Amino acid sequence: MNRTVLFDSPFLLGFDHTRALIERAAKAAAESYPPYNVEDLGDRRVRITLAVAGFTPDQLSVSVEGRQLVITGERTAEDKTYVHRGIAARGFTRAFVLDGGLEVDSALLDHGLLHVELVQPEGSDQVRRIPIRSARDSAG
After folding, report:
1. Which of 27, 79, 94, 105 could pair covalently with 117 via S-S, beta carbons 3.0-4.6 A apart?
2. What pTM did the predictor assign?
3. Which pLDDT score is estimated for 76?
């Protein structure tokens, strides 16, 4: 992949992982199945809702891998003969890049919709002051 000029700045150190996350997010945005909503619930909470009609809880998986929320649906083969098949029966993997402080709170499957709620705990955006030592203090 081409290296983004933004990340070549000498003021942005250690952003290789961030670049990879942006590239994954761009790839995921190009996919359209299953459709989803992202809802701001206020009070530092977000809900992602995916339309997963026909999937059972044991066919769905929600996990966090690093800073990425990964939702997977796996279908088992059916022994049915269809005259018309308009309902998608394929599996999927949908990934969302998370802010460093976001945590998955819960996942609920309700009437063909998978709701995944995320929360950003209080204090996750606090300023941390770094103490400065003197070289004289360190000398033996």
Report:
1. 105
2. 0.68
3. 79
